Amino acid sequence: MDDRIDPESYIVGEVISGCLMTRARRISRVVTNIYDQELRNHGLTASQFSMLIMIAKLGGASRSEIGRANFQDRTTLTRSLAPLLKEGWIEELPTKGGRSRPVVISSAGKKLLSGAAPAWREAQRKASALVGNNGAEAIIDIAENLPREDEPT
After folding, report:
1. What is the pLDDT of residues 130-147, one digit of tens each?
2. How far apart are the first and last CA of the chain?
3. In terms of DSSP bridges, do strands 103-105 and 90-92 run parallel, antiparallel, or are they unpaired?
């Protein structure tokens, strides 16, 4: 019998035992599903809710500013904004001189966020129970300390 380690088996075992990306994506899918289920009755996905919150927080920002704040490339951001614009939950304000148009949350978007707040709170409760207090604090801490695109890592 050959005593050499099969490279394929080695990488599989290494990834299975401790890959941060695999674990983070699994956690993200489960947590996102919790929020999707709670927000569904409001016609929102977790991603749309998150994007509306980001736009409301920024208070009128260019697409590139929103993308940087949300760690999204231009193509992904455009896809994310399209349904929000179509539903009238956000709008792009006209500007003079051809400068980028600021994206703002509309009155309908503000009303939607207000109505969806109890569903978000329930999702938050469920997700927090799933990951525990230490897990929730760790997730928030990690997210708050991620380097921005223009910062050195």
Report:
1. 999 999 999 999 999 988
2. 46
3. antiparallel
CB atoms within 10 A of CB 91: 18
Q: Which CATH number fits the domain that encloses residue 116?
A: 1.10.10.10
In degrees, rounded to 5, the angle at the alpha carbon of residue 86 between the alpha carbons of residues 82 and 66 is 40
- Residue 14 pLDDT greater than 60, yes or no: yes
Question: How many folded domains does the chain comprise?
Answer: 1
For residue 139, count other CB atoms closer than 10 A to its CB: 17
CB–CB of 89/43 below 8 Å? no
Q: Domain span at residue 61? A: 7-124
Q: Which residues, including other chains, have CB under 8 Å from residue 38's CB and lie 6 or more apart?
A: 119, 120, 122, 123, 126
